[in-house]
Amino acid sequence: MPLDFKFPDVGEGTTEGTLVKWLLAEGDKVKADQPIAEIETDKAVVEIPSPKTGVILKLYGKPGEVIKVGNVLATIGDAGESAGASKPTPTQTTTVSPSKSPASLAQGSTSSSTNAILATPSTRQLARSLNVDLSRVKGTGPGGRITDEDVKNASAVSTITKSKSPSSSIPPSAPSSSYREPWESAPSASASSLPHVHPDDTVETTQGTHVVSPLAHVESTKQAWKSEGSEERIPLRGLRKTISDRMVKSMFTAVQVTHMDEVDVTALVELREKEKLKMEKKGIKLTFLPFIAKACVAALHNHPYLNASIDDSTQEVVLKKYFHVGMAVDTEDGLIVPVIRNVDQKSIVQLAQEMQDIAQKTRERRISPEDLKGSTFTITNIGSLGGVYATPVINWPEVAILGVGKIQEKPVVRAGKIVIRHMMTVSLTFDHRIIDGAQAVRFTNEILQHLEDPGLFLLDVI
Amino acid sequence: MSLQKLTDFSTYKLSILDEQGKVDEKLLPKLSNTQLVELYSHLINLHVFDEKALKLQRQGRIGTYGSCAGQEACTVGTAYAMEKQDWTFPAFREHGVFMTRGVPMVNVFQYWGGDERGSKVESDMNCFPVAIPVGSQPLHAVGCALAMRYLKKDAVAIGYFGDGATSEGDTLEAMNFAGVFQAPVVLVCQNNQFAISEPRSLQTRAETIAQKAIAFGFEGIQVDGNDVLAVYQAMKQALEKARAGKGPTLLELYTYRMGDHTTADDSTRYRNKEELETWRKRDPIVRFKTYLTAIGVLTPALEEKIMNEAVSKVERAVQAYETMPAPSPSDMFDYMYAQLTPELAEQKKNFLAHLSRVNNASSSKSGEGPGFP
């Protein structure tokens, strides 16, 4: 009897993992406890050993794919058996010892091959009244159970699909198969036929109000892929997924406004040129970044609302009395922001050394998770590859981020004459929920004063 | 005005069997060849058990598990020196204490499979269950030791904890009580160099953990925790001392956790390979095997027999564990108190009523795995 081996909770409360690679192929013989796959969870990369001796009949998923805890990973049987023979059903599939595996219990059967429809009688009733075929609905509830919401969403989709008949208002020139934003060709639909759609989903169009279910959007997108063909789908995962989640969180939480200015850093450039070689002998690469970080912290001291966060749960502004500066580092895998702690308590030389070490560690991906947490303000170098100004995205839950541009020689006017000076641009994005424009400008001005007149750093020395 | 020296202290480290399998004859414990083989079998049993448990966890057949790889000698060596009437208070990496003291292996699998009944042992086995809270075990052991003396029993209590627990107030308070009242207790610290990811160097500025006992007025000794003979010998002496009414001992078993903290940890993130390789050369089982082979006690045939027996013992225990009837969800109320408190009795009643309302209650056979600090 073939055994459907489900991906267990290999961590502690792990819900999914990414398949790194298969260690065996379909048709291979396998011994009990022999590793069959390597899977990366949020905790570690782990080897998953086979629960029994036999033959690998089927492997589910490709490297790079996300596997949910409780989904079948492999079917293992005896030679001559086929994977289909096992026909996993929610009650009989569980592998070795269903009762003893908290993971398989907690997750229930989410096996893709299950045919049974899981829904409560009241949901079934709702489906009948909305004319929804439950066998076509994917359940999102526990163990794949179909919820009332699933039925309502399915109903909304079918309503929209139906109303997109050739006789609807699609302009004849538009290729009917191409993807369009739902509101572009929207026929007016009455809200009453689409129960429980959130008001946020309502989009004003010239044709009137069209209510769009989020699912409808997804459905029509899928249609487009089918017809166009030449696209590649790359799973959003790992660092990219983390960056994506955090960017979305930031953009949907903070009200972001960017203030831009320019500063004459000629004196700073001269100072650095003068001290650079001395530092090099000590193995320290003196960049502008420690100066900029110091200038920021000097200004943050006087503008506590820029060194803050908002506690949404209590509706309080949290002013931070410590100054941990995040430093955006570009790595091969994506953007990582390690944290330099207590910048106010360190000298420029110490900062230079620390930044050098931490940037290298980050690029080599040797940075520990602890070093990526707890920043109160972030600096990002937007000019290293080119460009003048940018609109950096706040490193939530912080409330401000400073982008610095490339230092370039430019003609500027001084005492009525055109002279050549070293100029640097800055772009400060701030959270307008707690910081107003005037304050952001005052704050930026203080940073610029330090960068323009590095003698001020000396005056700050304790 | 004067500045006078009041006291002078020294801390010792005991090691008998070195990494090459050579022994210091003068320090050898009195163990017969049969006992040496038995000791070796316990180590192999534990090792095979440990490897199997890791596999079972990765197959979803038990919950989160803490491997004892590299530390086998610490638990086997100490437990082998005990008398049946002695009381043990393990933390959570002391599988070897349970099994060496005679608790069936199936119980240990049950515990790690989330079945609390695994902690229930024969009434004459003085083994307390696994206690996850860091540093609680010394308190329990000292309390038990004082109770044993009060009851005029010839039993010593043994509390196990790790290097991390030595920074806990509970551990230090327990040591203070042990010293003040000369409790018949042995406090066994498995210093495996890591409290999850926190290295020993950040745990205390003190050079050794053993010397902490000095502050409380009793003896502490560091022992090579990868040397089963030294562990046995130090434990034997500490137990005899306690039994003779001469007070407590702190044993710092200097060892290294070869695996992750638990199956929910990835130790490659916080320690380097070189260190691991250094410690691999100090493997407690390999060096004991080298020694036993050299003195002719262990032959290849005997070695194979012991290994085969261990493998089949583990397989039988796994089978027994997996065919065990499911525990009842209401069990969670039943093992804390001999008699339920009124609040718990009421909660149990409500819970049972809730269970009968939930139609699939009977299928919820297993609980969550144990939680970790």
TrEMBL record, chain A:
Residues 118-155 form the Peripheral subunit-binding (PSBD) domain. GO terms for cellular component: cytoplasm. Keywords: Acyltransferase, Lipoyl, Transferase. CDD domains: lipoyl_domain. Residues 80-204 are annotated as: Disordered. Signal peptide: none annotated. Its cofactor is (R)-lipoate. SUPFAM superfamilies: CoA-dependent acyltransferases, Peripheral subunit-binding domain of 2-oxo acid dehydrogenase complex, Single hybrid motif. Residues 104-128 have a biased composition (Polar residues). Gene3D superfamilies: 2.40.50.100, Chloramphenicol acetyltransferase-like domain, E3-binding domain. Residues 86-102, 158-178 have a biased composition (Low complexity). Residues 2-77 form the Lipoyl-binding domain. InterPro entries: 2-oxoA_DH_lipoyl-BS, 2-oxoacid_DH_actylTfrase, 2-oxoacid_DH_E2_comp, Biotin_lipoyl, CAT-like_dom_sf, E3-bd_dom_sf, PSBD, Single_hybrid_motif. It comes from the Archaea. Pfam families: 2-oxoacid_dh, Biotin_lipoyl, E3_binding. One of its GO terms (molecular function) is lipoic acid binding. The keyword Nucleus does not apply. Belongs to the 2-oxoacid dehydrogenase family. This is 2-oxo acid dehydrogenase subunit E2. It comes from Candidatus Iainarchaeum sp.
UniProtKB/TrEMBL annotation, chain B:
The keyword Oxidoreductase applies. It comes from the Archaea. Residues 47-329 form the Dehydrogenase E1 component domain. InterPro entries: Alpha-ketoacid_DH_E1_comp, DH_E1, PdhA/BkdA, THDP-binding. GO terms for biological process: branched-chain amino acid catabolic process; sulfur compound biosynthetic process. One of its GO terms (molecular function) is oxidoreductase activity, acting on the aldehyde or oxo group of donors, disulfide as acceptor. Gene3D superfamilies: 3.40.50.970. This is Pyruvate dehydrogenase (Acetyl-transferring) E1 component subunit alpha. The lineage of its organism: Archaea, Candidatus Iainarchaeota, Candidatus Iainarchaeia, Candidatus Iainarchaeales, Candidatus Iainarchaeaceae.
